[in-house]
Protein backbone atom coordinates (compact mmCIF):
# COMPACT_ATOMS: atom_id res chain seq x y z
CA UNK A 1 0.00 0.00 0.00
CA UNK A 2 2.86 2.40 0.82
CA UNK A 3 4.40 1.73 -2.61
CA UNK A 4 1.10 2.61 -4.28
CA UNK A 5 0.81 5.88 -2.34
CA UNK A 6 4.40 6.87 -3.13
CA UNK A 7 3.91 6.01 -6.82
CA UNK A 8 0.64 7.97 -6.96
CA UNK A 9 2.24 10.98 -5.26
CA UNK A 10 5.21 10.88 -7.67
CA UNK A 11 2.87 10.66 -10.68
CA UNK A 12 0.85 13.59 -9.31
CA UNK A 13 3.96 15.75 -8.91
CA UNK A 14 5.07 14.93 -12.46
CA UNK A 15 1.61 15.71 -13.82
CA UNK A 16 1.58 19.11 -12.13
CA UNK A 17 5.18 20.15 -12.78
CA UNK A 18 5.94 18.46 -16.10
CA UNK A 19 9.28 17.12 -17.24
CA UNK A 20 10.32 19.84 -19.68
CA UNK A 21 12.81 22.46 -18.56
CA UNK A 22 14.27 25.30 -20.52
CA UNK A 23 17.88 25.14 -21.65
CA UNK A 24 20.22 28.12 -21.86
CA UNK A 25 23.35 29.10 -23.72
CA UNK A 26 25.29 32.19 -22.76
CA UNK A 27 28.36 34.15 -23.72
CA UNK A 28 31.14 35.38 -21.51
CA UNK A 29 30.99 39.08 -20.68
CA UNK A 30 33.05 41.08 -23.15
CA UNK A 31 34.34 44.56 -22.44
CA UNK A 32 32.92 47.57 -24.23
CA UNK A 33 35.54 50.22 -24.82
CA UNK A 34 35.15 53.96 -25.10
CA UNK A 35 34.00 53.99 -28.75
CA UNK A 36 31.76 50.90 -28.80
CA UNK A 37 28.14 51.99 -28.88
CA UNK A 38 26.07 48.89 -29.69
CA UNK A 39 25.82 45.33 -28.42
CA UNK A 40 24.04 42.81 -30.60
CA UNK A 41 23.16 39.18 -30.07
CA UNK A 42 22.53 36.98 -33.09
CA UNK A 43 20.89 33.53 -32.77
CA UNK A 44 20.87 30.99 -35.64
CA UNK A 45 18.92 27.74 -35.89
CA UNK A 46 21.54 25.44 -37.43
CA UNK A 47 19.29 22.39 -37.17
CA UNK A 48 16.72 20.86 -39.50
CA UNK A 49 13.60 21.48 -37.37
CA UNK A 50 12.03 24.68 -36.04
CA UNK A 51 13.08 25.81 -32.55
CA UNK A 52 11.07 28.15 -30.36
CA UNK A 53 13.40 30.64 -28.70
CA UNK A 54 11.70 31.79 -25.51
CA UNK A 55 14.14 34.57 -24.62
CA UNK A 56 17.17 36.42 -26.00
CA UNK A 57 18.72 38.91 -23.58
CA UNK A 58 21.67 41.28 -23.63
CA UNK A 59 22.92 41.76 -20.07
CA UNK A 60 25.60 43.96 -18.53
CA UNK A 61 28.14 43.20 -15.82
CA UNK A 62 25.68 44.33 -13.13
CA UNK A 63 23.13 41.71 -14.22
CA UNK A 64 20.82 44.33 -15.73
CA UNK A 65 18.92 43.33 -18.87
CA UNK A 66 19.68 45.91 -21.59
CA UNK A 67 17.47 44.37 -24.28
CA UNK A 68 15.19 41.33 -24.50
CA UNK A 69 12.92 39.65 -27.03
CA UNK A 70 11.47 36.26 -28.01
CA UNK A 71 12.40 36.12 -31.73
CA UNK A 72 8.71 36.47 -32.74
CA UNK A 73 7.89 32.78 -32.99
CA UNK A 74 9.78 29.61 -33.88
CA UNK A 75 13.01 29.88 -35.87
CA UNK A 76 12.84 27.63 -38.91
CA UNK A 77 15.94 25.74 -40.02
CA UNK A 78 18.54 28.25 -41.22
CA UNK A 79 16.70 31.29 -39.83
CA UNK A 80 18.14 33.75 -37.33
CA UNK A 81 17.03 36.58 -35.12
CA UNK A 82 18.98 39.41 -33.55
CA UNK A 83 18.58 42.01 -30.85
CA UNK A 84 20.52 45.24 -30.39
CA UNK A 85 21.11 47.42 -27.34
CA UNK A 86 22.83 50.77 -26.99
CA UNK A 87 25.70 50.44 -24.54
CA UNK A 88 27.62 52.86 -22.43
CA UNK A 89 31.25 53.38 -21.62
CA UNK A 90 33.31 50.95 -19.52
CA UNK A 91 30.86 48.08 -19.01
CA UNK A 92 30.97 44.43 -19.99
CA UNK A 93 28.14 42.84 -21.94
CA UNK A 94 26.97 39.31 -22.70
CA UNK A 95 24.05 37.44 -24.18
CA UNK A 96 21.77 34.72 -22.79
CA UNK A 97 19.48 32.60 -25.00
CA UNK A 98 16.72 30.42 -23.51
CA UNK A 99 14.85 27.73 -25.46
CA UNK A 100 13.33 24.30 -24.77
CA UNK A 101 16.38 22.81 -26.49
CA UNK A 102 19.57 24.61 -27.50
CA UNK A 103 21.35 21.76 -29.29
CA UNK A 104 20.78 23.23 -32.76
CA UNK A 105 21.19 26.90 -31.79
CA UNK A 106 24.35 28.86 -32.52
CA UNK A 107 24.77 32.42 -31.29
CA UNK A 108 27.27 35.18 -30.65
CA UNK A 109 27.42 38.57 -29.00
CA UNK A 110 29.12 41.39 -30.92
CA UNK A 111 30.13 44.86 -29.76
CA UNK A 112 30.04 47.48 -32.52
CA UNK A 113 31.18 51.03 -32.99
CA UNK A 114 30.09 53.64 -35.49
CA UNK A 115 32.60 54.67 -38.13
CA UNK A 116 32.42 57.15 -40.99
CA UNK A 117 33.57 56.18 -44.46
CA UNK A 118 35.28 58.42 -47.04
CA UNK A 119 31.90 59.94 -47.94
CA UNK A 120 31.04 60.67 -44.28
CA UNK A 121 28.38 57.99 -44.20
CA UNK A 122 27.91 56.47 -40.74
CA UNK A 123 28.50 52.68 -40.70
CA UNK A 124 28.49 50.03 -38.00
CA UNK A 125 31.84 48.30 -37.51
CA UNK A 126 32.08 45.10 -35.42
CA UNK A 127 34.94 45.40 -32.93
CA UNK A 128 34.84 42.30 -30.71
CA UNK A 129 32.69 39.20 -30.33
CA UNK A 130 32.24 36.01 -28.34
CA UNK A 131 30.28 32.80 -29.04
CA UNK A 132 27.52 31.50 -26.79
CA UNK A 133 28.08 28.07 -25.31
* Class derived from helix and strand content: mainly beta
| Share of residues in strands | over 45%
Counting H and I runs of at least 4 residues, what is the number of helices? Answer: 1
Query: Which second-level CATH architecture applies?
Result: Sandwich
How far is it from the N-terminal to the C-terminal residue, by CA? 47 Å
According to CATH, the fold-level topology is: Jelly Rolls
The beta-strand count equals: 9
- In total, how many domains does the architecture comprise? 1
Rough shape? globular
Radius of gyration: 20 Å
| Average pLDDT over all residues | 85
CATH class: Mainly Beta
Main beta sheet:
5 strands, antiparallel
Residue share in helix: 10-25%
Q: Which spans of ≥5 residues are poorly predicted at pLDDT below 50?
A: 1-19
Q: Secondary-structure element sequence? A: HEEEEEEEEE
Descriptive notes:
With 133 residues, this protein is mainly beta. The strands form two sheets. Strands 1, 2, 4, 5 and 7 form a five-stranded antiparallel beta sheet that branches. Strands 6-3-8-9 form a four-stranded antiparallel beta sheet, with no helix packed on it. It is built from one helix and nine strands, in the order H-E-E-E-E-E-E-E-E-E. It has a single domain, classed as Jelly Rolls (Sandwich), CATH 2.60.120. The protein starts with a helix and ends with a strand. The longest helix has 16 residues.
Amino acid sequence: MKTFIVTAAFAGVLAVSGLAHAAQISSPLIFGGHFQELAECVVLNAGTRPVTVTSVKIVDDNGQTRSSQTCAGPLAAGEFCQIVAHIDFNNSFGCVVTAPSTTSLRASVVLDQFAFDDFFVKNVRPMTSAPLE
